[in-house]
Amino acid sequence: MNNNSDFLEFAINFYTWSNNLVTMISNEENYSSKFFNRKVSHIDLKNYKSSSEEFYNLTFYKLLKSVFDNTKTHIDEIENINTVHINKATIMKGNSTHILHKNSFSELHDLGITSPPYFNAREYSQWPNLILYLFDMLFNAEAIYKSLKYKGIYAYNIGDIVDRDNIYINSQMSIRRQMLGFYSMMIFEIVGFQIIGNDI
């Protein structure tokens, strides 16, 4: 991919902030040191290891990991849960994080499937800012992880959105894409999931 690629320009322009450091992992070395007012560093693809510390050194990753490591999920009270039994199926209406952390189920599951609420995309899914949304998704992912059998599968359907995160952006003029897919995979890594696929 070369510097003039529409995709590269789109990714840097819409997924990064002014004065961010952008690290390019590529087999090409002709990137300039500045791009869209971003500082650019380069790692040669041949020298890049999948176990690289680059990912784990992201400030955002460290924040989520720190919260996860230092927070003991403790739910004393749980709202009334409406439960309906249809043949062998049990349908429960309530906050899935609370239900799963309460361990209401007598057995672990082979599969979890969800299309979670998107950050502030509907009236029923509003958070004051993106960080608080991601904390909620982190604790929900932990609850799902604990409810699955060893080698159980969690299928998670989410896409990026265009919005303000209410932390760095408040103006309608500076709406950016929120990388919900990337943040979700970061959360799964922290919780303990092994990522086996990513379909776009």
UniProtKB/TrEMBL annotation:
Record has Membrane as a keyword: yes
Key word Lipid metabolism present: no
Catalytic reaction(s) noted: a 2'-deoxycytidine in DNA + S-adenosyl-L-methionine = an N(4)-methyl-2'-deoxycytidine in DNA + S-adenosyl-L-homocysteine + H(+)
GO MF term set: DNA binding; site-specific DNA-methyltransferase (cytosine-N4-specific) activity
Protein's GO biological process: DNA restriction-modification system; methylation
InterPro entries named among the record's database cross-references: MeTrfase_CN4_CS, SAM-dependent_MTases_sf
Principal EC category: transferase
Residues spanning the membrane: 180-197
Listed EC numbers: 2.1.1.113
Keywords: Membrane, Methyltransferase, Restriction system, S-adenosyl-L-methionine, Transferase, Transmembrane, Transmembrane helix
Similarity-based family: Belongs to the N(4)/N(6)-methyltransferase family. N(4) subfamily.
Name the record gives this protein: site-specific DNA-methyltransferase (cytosine-N(4)-specific)
Organism: Jeotgalicoccus meleagridis
